Amino acid sequence: MKTTMKALQIEAPGRAVWKDVSMPKPAAGEVLVKVLGVTTCPHWDMHMLGGQPMFPGMKLEYPLKPGVPGHEAMGEVVAVGRGVKTLKVGHRVVAWQDTGQPRDGFYAQYNAFPERSLLRIPTKLTPLQVASLELAMCVEVSFQQLASLGGIKGRRVGIAGLGPAGLVAVQLAKAHGAREVVGIDFVDSRRALARKLGADRTCAPNAQAWKPGRKGPRALDDAIDCTGLPPSISFLMDRTQRCVTIFGVLREDVAFSPRHLWGPGILLMGYGDHNRTAGETALKFITQGKLDLAPLVSRTLPFTRYAEGVDLLRAKKATKILFNPWRE
User: Fold this and answer.
1) Domains delineated in the chain
2) Which of 114, 123, 151, 139 is nearest to 33 (CA)?
């Protein structure tokens, strides 16, 4: 039985090391996962390596735990802890949630993880196709929010911010039956990829080219903001009839103005709770061919080139990076 493995550890801002660490052992209710592939969650990676908290009020203490911040991962169960009820050695699994607890992450060759936080997946699915399921689960929660208003079937939906989350949202909007999906982003290449993934139309958030107006043929029925930026949210609020729901991490106040109060008034909706149903829905769409996560991955790299991968994300030369912990 192996006693050591390789894991990434961010030892200080700007310094990440691929090093030998102790092999984890699954506790009660956990399974040991041999990690076959793990994708970046760009803002997490850029913030953690850059020495900045991901959320307001969050405290960072270096060195970070081994494997952190990796949480979008798939792999194979190689051992099970006491009390594990469903998963067995040999099952392929994907993480559907980040537990939110201080623990080692998936930027490693192995990780012990709670059975309840994993979904069993078909063996035919590759890391490229499914490792980012946790992101898709997160985005699906925003569609659950809109479902509470009657859903988006047959409606015109805007998606602002065509990074990884926005590109997933474009596909989920189509999967949920949107009549038309409009992708909004400043970056030409991201708009082009959104069109390939199903967006009916894309545009830059240009207030001169798209005049404000919550009625008429150009108005959106609903919208999802994937930026967390107040100017983007305001842009959507001025062009959406029913609801703007916020997915992006919000760090500043957003103004709800008198013009948003009438005609009828627009709803500005926050985020919901991560949940297994959202993960199962995302996995269903993957297996049905309605959600393709592979085009989000720009490069596959070994962890010895982690800093290079984060630099590509920071320069917007990559959408996501897939790391293979078994490649040198």
Assistant:
1) 4-132+293-323 (3.90.180.10), 135-269 (3.40.50.720)
2) 114
